[in-house]
Protein backbone atom coordinates (compact mmCIF):
# COMPACT_ATOMS: atom_id res chain seq x y z
CA UNK A 1 0.00 0.00 0.00
CA UNK A 2 1.31 3.48 -0.89
CA UNK A 3 3.01 5.32 1.99
CA UNK A 4 2.77 2.25 4.25
CA UNK A 5 5.48 -0.26 5.13
CA UNK A 6 6.80 -2.57 7.80
CA UNK A 7 10.02 -2.50 9.76
CA UNK A 8 11.42 -5.66 11.30
CA UNK A 9 13.18 -4.89 14.57
CA UNK A 10 16.01 -6.98 15.97
CA UNK A 11 15.13 -8.85 19.12
CA UNK A 12 16.91 -10.83 21.77
CA UNK A 13 14.68 -13.53 23.18
CA UNK A 14 15.62 -16.16 25.73
CA UNK A 15 14.19 -17.83 28.79
CA UNK A 16 14.09 -14.41 30.47
CA UNK A 17 11.74 -12.85 27.92
CA UNK A 18 12.37 -10.53 24.99
CA UNK A 19 14.36 -7.36 24.48
CA UNK A 20 13.87 -5.16 21.42
CA UNK A 21 16.38 -2.32 20.97
CA UNK A 22 15.58 0.67 18.72
CA UNK A 23 18.54 2.84 17.74
CA UNK A 24 17.37 6.24 16.56
CA UNK A 25 19.21 7.33 13.44
CA UNK A 26 19.81 3.79 12.14
CA UNK A 27 16.83 1.53 12.89
CA UNK A 28 14.18 4.14 12.02
CA UNK A 29 14.07 5.72 8.51
CA UNK A 30 13.35 9.24 9.77
CA UNK A 31 14.48 11.55 12.53
CA UNK A 32 12.36 10.72 15.59
CA UNK A 33 11.23 13.91 17.33
CA UNK A 34 8.38 12.55 19.46
CA UNK A 35 7.43 9.36 21.24
CA UNK A 36 4.09 8.55 22.79
CA UNK A 37 2.17 5.49 23.81
CA UNK A 38 -1.50 4.61 24.04
CA UNK A 39 -3.01 2.14 26.48
CA UNK A 40 -6.03 1.24 28.66
CA UNK A 41 -8.24 1.40 25.55
CA UNK A 42 -11.53 -0.47 25.84
CA UNK A 43 -12.10 -3.13 23.17
CA UNK A 44 -15.01 -1.25 21.56
CA UNK A 45 -13.16 2.10 21.30
CA UNK A 46 -11.84 3.37 17.95
CA UNK A 47 -8.91 5.81 18.11
CA UNK A 48 -7.23 7.79 15.37
CA UNK A 49 -9.73 8.57 12.61
CA UNK A 50 -7.42 11.07 10.97
CA UNK A 51 -4.56 11.39 8.50
CA UNK A 52 -1.48 13.60 8.51
CA UNK A 53 -0.28 16.01 5.85
CA UNK A 54 3.45 15.39 6.32
CA UNK A 55 4.06 13.33 9.47
CA UNK A 56 5.73 9.91 9.40
CA UNK A 57 4.97 7.52 12.23
CA UNK A 58 5.97 4.03 13.28
CA UNK A 59 3.46 2.10 15.35
CA UNK A 60 4.67 -0.79 17.48
CA UNK A 61 2.28 -2.81 19.58
CA UNK A 62 4.65 -3.58 22.44
CA UNK A 63 2.07 -5.55 24.42
CA UNK A 64 -1.14 -7.28 23.37
CA UNK A 65 -2.79 -6.64 20.02
CA UNK A 66 -4.37 -3.78 18.11
CA UNK A 67 -6.12 -3.72 14.74
CA UNK A 68 -5.12 -0.82 12.49
CA UNK A 69 -7.25 0.05 9.47
CA UNK A 70 -5.47 2.07 6.80
CA UNK A 71 -7.03 3.85 3.85
CA UNK A 72 -5.34 5.94 1.17
CA UNK A 73 -8.59 6.27 -0.85
CA UNK A 74 -7.30 3.78 -3.45
CA UNK A 75 -6.77 0.87 -1.10
CA UNK A 76 -8.00 -0.06 2.35
CA UNK A 77 -6.11 -2.50 4.52
CA UNK A 78 -6.63 -4.01 7.96
CA UNK A 79 -3.49 -4.94 9.87
CA UNK A 80 -3.33 -6.78 13.18
CA UNK A 81 -0.34 -5.63 15.21
CA UNK A 82 0.46 -8.31 17.77
CA UNK A 83 4.24 -8.64 17.46
CA UNK A 84 6.51 -6.26 19.42
CA UNK A 85 9.28 -6.75 16.83
CA UNK A 86 7.22 -5.31 13.94
CA UNK A 87 6.90 -1.59 13.27
CA UNK A 88 4.14 -0.30 10.99
CA UNK A 89 5.42 2.75 9.10
CA UNK A 90 2.61 5.13 8.09
CA UNK A 91 3.53 8.08 5.92
CA UNK A 92 1.53 11.16 4.92
CA UNK A 93 -2.03 11.08 3.64
CA UNK A 94 -3.06 7.73 5.04
CA UNK A 95 -6.27 7.64 7.06
CA UNK A 96 -5.82 5.43 10.13
CA UNK A 97 -8.09 3.92 12.74
CA UNK A 98 -6.86 1.89 15.69
CA UNK A 99 -9.38 -0.50 17.24
CA UNK A 100 -9.93 -3.83 19.00
CA UNK A 101 -7.26 -3.17 21.62
CA UNK A 102 -6.77 -6.33 23.67
CA UNK A 103 -6.78 -6.06 27.47
CA UNK A 104 -3.44 -4.53 28.49
CA UNK A 105 -2.44 -3.62 24.91
CA UNK A 106 0.06 -0.79 24.59
CA UNK A 107 0.75 0.95 21.28
CA UNK A 108 4.08 2.77 21.07
CA UNK A 109 4.37 5.49 18.41
CA UNK A 110 7.53 7.11 17.05
CA UNK A 111 6.85 10.33 15.15
CA UNK A 112 8.91 12.49 12.81
CA UNK A 113 7.66 15.85 14.16
CA UNK A 114 6.51 17.43 17.38
CA UNK A 115 2.77 17.54 17.97
CA UNK A 116 1.22 20.00 15.53
CA UNK A 117 -2.54 20.19 15.19
CA UNK A 118 -2.17 21.94 11.81
CA UNK A 119 -0.65 18.74 10.35
CA UNK A 120 -3.85 16.78 11.09
CA UNK A 121 -6.57 16.04 8.55
CA UNK A 122 -9.55 15.24 10.76
CA UNK A 123 -12.23 15.53 8.07
CA UNK A 124 -12.43 12.43 5.85
CA UNK A 125 -13.71 14.54 2.93
CA UNK A 126 -10.79 16.99 3.12
CA UNK A 127 -8.35 14.06 3.43
CA UNK A 128 -9.98 12.35 0.42
CA UNK A 129 -9.52 15.45 -1.73
CA UNK A 130 -5.82 15.76 -0.85
CA UNK A 131 -5.12 12.01 -1.18
CA UNK A 132 -6.78 11.78 -4.59
CA UNK A 133 -4.65 14.67 -5.79
CA UNK A 134 -1.51 12.80 -4.64
CA UNK A 135 -2.36 9.17 -5.36
CA UNK A 136 -4.92 9.56 -8.16
CA UNK A 137 -8.10 7.47 -8.04
P1 LIG B 1 -5.85 12.14 19.80
O1 LIG B 1 -5.37 12.79 18.54
O2 LIG B 1 -7.31 12.17 20.07
O3 LIG B 1 -5.34 10.63 19.86
P2 LIG B 1 -5.72 9.39 18.85
O4 LIG B 1 -5.36 9.84 17.47
O5 LIG B 1 -4.88 8.25 19.32
O6 LIG B 1 -7.16 9.07 18.97
O7 LIG B 1 -5.06 12.80 21.03
C1 LIG B 1 -5.57 12.80 22.35
C2 LIG B 1 -5.09 14.08 23.05
O8 LIG B 1 -3.67 14.06 23.22
C3 LIG B 1 -5.42 15.34 22.29
O9 LIG B 1 -5.90 16.28 23.22
C4 LIG B 1 -4.10 15.81 21.73
C5 LIG B 1 -3.09 15.24 22.71
N1 LIG B 1 -1.79 14.88 22.12
C6 LIG B 1 -0.66 15.58 22.48
O10 LIG B 1 -0.70 16.55 23.27
N2 LIG B 1 0.54 15.22 21.95
C7 LIG B 1 0.65 14.18 21.09
O11 LIG B 1 1.77 13.87 20.63
C8 LIG B 1 -0.55 13.48 20.68
C9 LIG B 1 -0.47 12.34 19.70
C10 LIG B 1 -1.74 13.86 21.23
Q: Report the portion of residues in β strands.
A: 35-45%
Number of strand elements: 12
Largest β sheet strand count, sense and barrel closure:
5 strands, antiparallel
CATH class: Mainly Beta
Oligomer status: single chain
How many independent structural domains? Answer: 1
| Fourth-level CATH superfamily | Jelly Rolls
Number of helices: 1
SSE arrangement, N to C: EEEEEEEEEEEEH
Using the 3D structure, state the CATH architecture.
Sandwich
Q: Structural class, from secondary structure content?
A: mainly beta
Shape: globular
Indicate the CATH topology: Jelly Rolls
Spatial strand sequence of the major β-sheet: 1-9-6-11-4
Q: Flag low-confidence runs.
A: none
Please explain how this structure is put together.
- This protein has 137 residues and is mainly beta.
- The protein is globular, with a radius of gyration of 15 Å.
- The mean pLDDT is 97.
- It has one domain: Sandwich (Jelly Rolls), CATH 2.60.120.10.
- It has one helix at residues 124-135, and strands at residues 4-8, 12-14, 17-19, 34-39, 47-52, 57-63, 66-71, 76-81, 86-90, 95-99, 106-111, 120-121.
- The strands form 3 sheets. Strands 1-9-6-11-4 form a 5-stranded antiparallel β-sheet, with no helix packed on it.
- The chain binds thymidine-5'-diphosphate (TYD).
- Thymidine-5'-diphosphate is lined by residues 34, 36, 38, 47-48, 115.
What topology emerges from the helices and strands here?
Blueprint: E1 4-8, E2 12-14, E3 17-19, E4 34-39, E5 47-52, E6 57-63, E7 66-71, E8 76-81, E9 86-90, E10 95-99, E11 106-111, E12 120-121, H1 124-135
Antiparallel strand pairs: 1-9, 2-3, 4-11, 5-10, 5-12, 6-9, 6-11, 7-8, 7-10
The structure holds thymidine-5'-diphosphate.
Residues 34, 36, 38, 47-48, 115 line the site of thymidine-5'-diphosphate.
